[in-house]
Amino acid sequence: MLFALSAVLTIASSDAAEPIIVKSPDGSVAVSFEINGDDLTYAINRGEKTIIPPSQIEVFTDAAMAVTGHQTQTHDSVWEPVYGQFRSIRDHYNELTLSLTAGRVPVELICRVFDTGVGLRFVMSEESRGRKISYQTVHRLPNVAAAHNGSRGGKIPNLKTSRRISVPLVVQRSDNVHVAILESDLYSAAGFESLRMKYSSSHRGVVASNVAVSQGAGHLTPWRVVLIGDTAGALTVNTVALNLAAPCQIDDTDWIVPGKGLWDWRIHGYHNGDFAYGIDTRSYLRLIDFCAENEIEYLTVDDFWFEHAGNGKMKVSPKVDIAKVMQYAKEHGVRIMLYYDRKKGNFGDETLFEHYAQLGASGIKYGFMGNKATFTRESINAAAENKLLINFHDGPVPMTGVQRTMPNLISREYCHGQQDARKAFTPETFLNMAMVSGLTGPLDMSNGNFGINSINAGEREKGPKERNTYISTVVSEVARNLVINTGLVTLPDAPEEYCKKTDLFDFLRDMPATWDDTRVPNSKLGEYITVARRSGQTWFIASVGDQNQRDLNIPLDFLSPGIRYQATVFSDGPDAHGVTNPEAYEITSTTVNKSDIVTVRLAVGGGNAIILRPIE
Questions:
Q1: Largest CA distance in the chain
Q2: CA distances from 36 to 33, 56, 478 (A)
Q3: What are phi and psi of 5, to 5 degrees?
Q4: Is the pLDDT of residue 310 over 80?
Q5: Where would I find the Glycosyl-hydrolase 97 N-terminal domain in this sequence (predicted)?
């Protein structure tokens, strides 16, 4: 680990007319600060390009800002996440600390500049105690060609008329530079709720804000984050937001195990001719058997296993012997994620997590808790105290970076889950969610349906309300599970459907849930993406496309030199089509090396998946 402290420079406020500039370690990104009248402004440039022209930043509403001093330092270290896209992450930045007065109250502004982004955070003084913090940054964004935002990756028709912009905001500029606005380490910012954004014509830019009441010395705001990349895919592997998050707060993380899991919810009503799945003990035991036989680490038992909760008690469904299910799972080495939400009453959060741990659950899937940061912090902490993973659903707080700080946050549905809101879940919205919503951290999108014809025919209780509206191919379903970054890969289909295509299921069976390295060779918002992930010496590659048939070239220059690889290629069949023939696929084999370029064909709504194993 390296840590270098530069010479400290302190300046008087009378010298603040000159811009104060801090650059990234490679010198490509520069952030400058100035006092204009009573306002503090910042600007971001990358090389000769202006990313954000001078824009206002404040901590108390309309407070006059003045600079009293500043200091700089350089930090360079490496840390290892518990799970994620990389085995190790370099944390390399130059940091500027601005000493300020805001309405005569001393505060500090911390600016960290990385080669691919910037973080801005205020630190409160004791003199600020009890004052209302209104942390507001303006982001003037030139040359915007397209903009997307929010938990569903939605395209913004006109940024300048947007009165509500959901985190994150991703803009593609006319010069193809991609810029994202979001926040990090909300977990450490006590009292703050999620970032709110809107376009302001008076500020001529996007205004991002959080509010809280100052708790005095050392009280932190969240980091305001600006990511910069040449492609949308580059943003998905950008580690700035993770580096800005607080280091892991859990001393022993051995119990936090990323993995794949089966999910019962979408299987309800599936009938294989001899057996119909429902919310009952025998269905759960059957699903546990499949998990054990296929080395799938988890089963998520979703809603209606209990009928009511209140005052520290649960009325379990008479069709479910939950003690038997938990014991059977334990005997077969399968971990259970157990569902809970307050629609069936309030068990009492002070004892809920202890109760789930006593039942033998490995984690809790928490539904309908909403975008409430304080509640989310407390739930994550309570889960960790009881060694439980937690997966938030139904419009949760994005809380970017928390998987570094509290890695028991294994996933969350900050997206449209598979088959939810079918009118919005198209191949295009999957791609936008992967490249927009995914910037906030791990997603639970529950991809991986193999019985697409069955689902479109209405043979599931919880399939799409309108038949034949599910546009995807089985190979795309496989590929989507690699594209999405998550600590818990949730598989939503019936075991029988996976057994019908066991050779295709091999990809999912062999695919890990945490990675040593990740690359994104191809990407375009709403159109296509290729993601390559490495575990050990084996690479898994997945491509997903929109509703246009296309060919993608995948350069294999990320492979190790001097090694040949056996490539197993899972492709859409020659006549595959996401609407008319979704289940056609083929599997081929070839050998490749670092100098090769693989061309893959994607059907309408289709995908491609490849496993590259070194040949000894």
A1: 83
A2: 10, 9, 54
A3: -105, 120
A4: yes
A5: 22-247
Which region, left, alpha or beta, applies to residue 496 given φ > 0 means left and ψ of -120 to 50 means alpha? Answer: alpha
- ∠ Cα 455 511 275 (to 5°): 35
For residues 585 and 575, is the Cβ–Cβ distance under 8 A? no
Tokens, residue 173: 């500029």
User: Running DSSP on this structure, what letter comes out for residue 222?
Assistant: P
Which helix or strand (DSSP H or E) is residue 8 part of?
none
Instruction: Domain 2-244: give its CATH code.
Output: 2.70.98.10
**Cβ pair 153, 434 in contact under 8 A:** yes
Q: Which residues 6+ apart lie within 8 Å of 17 measured at CB?
A: 34, 35
User: What residue ranges do the domains of the chain occupy?
Assistant: 2-244, 259-504
- Of 81, 186, 88, residue with least CA distance to 408: 81
Cα–Cα distances in angstroms (integers) from residue 559 to residues 117, 187, 570, 590, in the given order: 27, 37, 19, 15
Q: Which amino acid is at 85?
A: Q
Instruction: Give the C-alpha separation, 555 to 155, whole Å.
Output: 29
pTM of the predicted structure, to 2 decimals: 0.95
Q: What are the pLDDT digits (tens) for 209-242?
A: 999 999 999 999 999 999 999 999 999 999 999 9
Q: How far is residue 528 from each of residues 147, 255, 421, 476, 480, measured CA to CA in Å?
A: 17, 36, 21, 11, 11
Q: Residue 118's beta-bridge partner residues?
A: 113, 226
Residue 553 phi/psi, 5-degree rounding, is -95, 130
Query: How far is 42 from 443, CA to CA, in rounded Å?
Result: 32
Q: Average the pLDDT over each of 143-157, 224-238, 301-315, 417-431 and give the range with the smallest value.
A: 417-431
- The CA radius of gyration of the chain, in Å to the nearest whole number, is 25
* Mean pLDDT, residues 463-469: 78
